[in-house]
């Protein structure tokens, strides 16, 4: 073969004129369902590859990366993988994690057939949390700091790894990707129109929070903060007030697309993420569903706890807690809020059950149930996510399927960056280098997951400095860079009431945790890069909004 016909491992002679090429440009338009983007079924791959090769005949490259045409095997031994994701669900509302109110029978049955993990998100905010999950890397390494943060298409995701084995891949519903690349390696984005972002929109850079601004309430969506946690005079009045932010209709469309996807005829294995908005605020469900859970309350102390430090103060200000806390913590309001959240969760659980029933080959399907982060929901008198308290940072993580032992309870702390390498290990997919996550597959077989540090970070709206969490076993260390440190013993103090950072007898432990965190992340470097990103995006936002206003 001539030198000009091979470049970066692409062998142009291996393509026929109509062979499907998995790295083709995605298309949107006639012929696709509403809210769907996908790869074309076939392109003139030979002409495309030959053109690339001819332009780079003598271009140097360090190594050849094999890229082959996607063939359609007549059968596949590898398992299908379905990840069911929800939004803002603390695990203590799920029966498999100890809740007794019966809102999650399908999820609990899935847990009984598989493994239940003590898991945390790697960022208690939608966009960076989900970016970390699909890449297996901390969001700060992706320069994805907040809900206006996009990450480069050069970062490999689980879709690339599974695609290398011939899997068809899809995201169905919410993933909160920002920017031009809404796929990040996934073949399809179904129900994309239900997501908060569907492409590049510099107006969304309004969420690129400037750490130098004065501490205060969220200027972009104040109603979605404190007020949405308060009951209205009636269910219909609440629905009318928060209608643009309600998720029930969006989730219905996501669910319909997910069921249709599972019902397709296919000869290739699939990796699909079906991602719902519930039970994210605003909180609304039909009156009869809410009545079913009237009086249901999780096992937490409904009490206001004094702010433990500056991160609490910043985020309470951002969430309008001082303005709503008295009404939030009123017994009748908490009763309404939890009955509604349980009703939303029960509807989500019904949909989980329907997805499980719709699996084309349940005996060879790995199923994951997970949330992106939690929600304080009145714990400590706080609301929303963004904090590092367990109610905000912990997530349910349940894995069931072939080769996974039943009834496993993994007490070793894990996090969402571990999901990519663990699923890749189950199917034998190749992994990119330098992942932060580790394969905890040993726990799925009933063994012990390796002890490894769990890192979570928050650098987004509401705070004024980079914030980090390091958990090693039951020890939890929090750093608000340049401001404060906190230290908790979760075994002795699961409610995180006693900060040990100032305790002389814990000085050595504090020193060790501080050093361990700095071996994993560089707070000074994150601060520099995050501020630079805020300045760039802030400039673009001001330029675009200003020009639009003047036009």
Question: Can you give a write-up of this model?
Answer:
This protein is of the alpha/beta class and 551 residues long. 30% of the residues lie in helices and 15% in strands. Strands 3-7-6-8-4-9-10-5-11 form a nine-stranded mixed beta sheet. Strand 13 (467-472) and strand 14 (475-480) form a beta hairpin. Helix 6 packs parallel to helix 10 (331-358). Mean pLDDT is 85; it is low at 1-34 and 36-74.
User: Biggest β-sheet: count, sense, barrel?
Assistant: 9 strands, mixed
Number of strands: 15
What sequence of helices (H) and strands (E) makes up the elements? EEEHEHEHHEEHHEHHHHEHEEHHEEEEHH
Coarse structural class: alpha/beta
Provide a concise account of the structure shown.
Helices cover 30% and strands 15% of the residues. With 551 residues, the protein is of the alpha/beta class. Mean pLDDT is 85; it is low at 1-34 and 36-74.
Describe the structure using short key phrases.
single chain; about 550 residues; about 30% helix; disordered N terminus; hydrolase; Sulfatase_N; Sulfatase_CS
What is the secondary structure topology, with strand pairs?
Blueprint: E1 6-7, E2 10-11, E3 37-38, H1 45-55, E4 80-86, H2 105-112, E5 114-120, H3 126-135, H4 158-163, E6 168-173, E7 188-190, H5 235-242, H6 248-262, E8 270-275, H7 287-292, H8 310-318, H9 321-328, H10 331-358, E9 365-371, H11 390-393, E10 394-400, E11 408-415, H12 419-427, H13 441-444, E12 454-458, E13 467-472, E14 475-480, E15 484-489, H14 507-520, H15 523-550
Parallel strand pairs: 4-8, 4-9, 5-11, 6-7, 6-8
Antiparallel strand pairs: 1-2, 3-7, 5-10, 9-10, 12-13, 13-14, 14-15
């Amino acid at each position: 073969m001539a030198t000009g016909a091979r470049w970066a491992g692409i062998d142009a002679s291996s393509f026929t004129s109509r062979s499907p090429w998995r790295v083709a440009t995605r298309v949107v338009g006639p012929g696709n369902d509403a809210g769907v983007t996908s790869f074309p079924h076939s392109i003139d791959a030979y002409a495309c590859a030959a053109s690339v090769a001819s332009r780079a005949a003598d271009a140097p490259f360090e190594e050849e990366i094999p890229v082959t045409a996607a063939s359609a095997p007549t059968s596949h031994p590898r398992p299908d993988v379905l990840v069911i994701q929800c939004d803002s669900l603390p695990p203590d509302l799920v029966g498999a994690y100890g809740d007794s109110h019966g809102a999650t029978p399908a999820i609990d049955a899935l847990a009984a057939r598989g493994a239940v993990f003590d898991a945390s998100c790697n960022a208690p905010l939608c966009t960076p949390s989900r970016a970390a999950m699909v890449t297996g890397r901390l969001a700060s390494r992706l320069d994805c700091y907040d809900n206006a943060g996009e990450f480069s298409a050069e970062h490999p995701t689980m879709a690339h790894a599974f695609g290398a084995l011939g899997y068809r891949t899809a995201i169905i519903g919410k993933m909160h990707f920002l920017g031009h690349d809404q796929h990040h390696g996934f073949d399809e984005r179904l129900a994309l129109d239900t997501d908060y972002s569907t492409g590049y929109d510099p107006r969304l850079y309004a969420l690129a929070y400037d750490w130098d601004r004065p501490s205060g309430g969220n200027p972009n969506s104040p109603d979605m903060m404190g007020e949405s946690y308060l009951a209205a005079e009636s269910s219909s009045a609440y629905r009318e007030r928060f209608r643009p932010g309600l998720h029930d209709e969006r989730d219905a469309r996501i669910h319909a697309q997910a069921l249709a996807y599972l019902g397709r005829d296919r000869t290739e294995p699939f990796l699909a993420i079906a991602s719902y908005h519930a039970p994210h605020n605003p909180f609304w469900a039909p009156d009869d569903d809410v009545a079913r859970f009237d009086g249901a309350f999780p096992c937490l102390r409904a009490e206001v706890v004094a702010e433990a430090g500056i991160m609490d103060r910043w985020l309470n200000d951002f969430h309008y807690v001082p303005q709503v806390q008295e009404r939030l913590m009123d017994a009748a309001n908490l009763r309404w809020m939890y009955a509604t959240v349980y009703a939303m969760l029960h509807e989500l659980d019904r949909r989980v059950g329907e997805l499980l029933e719709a699996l084309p080959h349940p005996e060879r399907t790995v199923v994951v149930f997970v949330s992106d982060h939690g929600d304080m929901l009145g714990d400590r008198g706080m609301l929303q996510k963004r904090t590092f308290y367990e109610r905000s940072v912990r997530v349910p993580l349940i894995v069931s399927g072939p080769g996974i032992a039943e009834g496993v309870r993994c007490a070793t702390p894990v996090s969402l960056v571990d999901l990519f390498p663990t699923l890749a290990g189950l199917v034998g997919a190749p992994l990119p280098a330098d992942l932060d996550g580790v394969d905890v597959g040993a726990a799925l077989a009933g063994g012990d997951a390796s002890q490894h540090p769990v890192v979570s970070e928050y650098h987004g709206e509401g705070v004024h400095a980079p914030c980090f969490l390091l958990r090693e076993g039951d020890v939890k260390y929090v750093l608000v860079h340049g401001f404060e440190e906190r230290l908790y013993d979760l075994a002795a103090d699961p409610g995180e009431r006693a900060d040990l950072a100032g305790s002389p007898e814990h000085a050595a432990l504090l020193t060790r945790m501080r050093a361990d965190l700095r071996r994993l992340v560089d707070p000074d470097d994150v601060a520099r890069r995050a501020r630079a990103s805020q300045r760039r995006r802030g400039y673009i936002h001001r330029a675009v909004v200003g020009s639009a206003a003047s036009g």
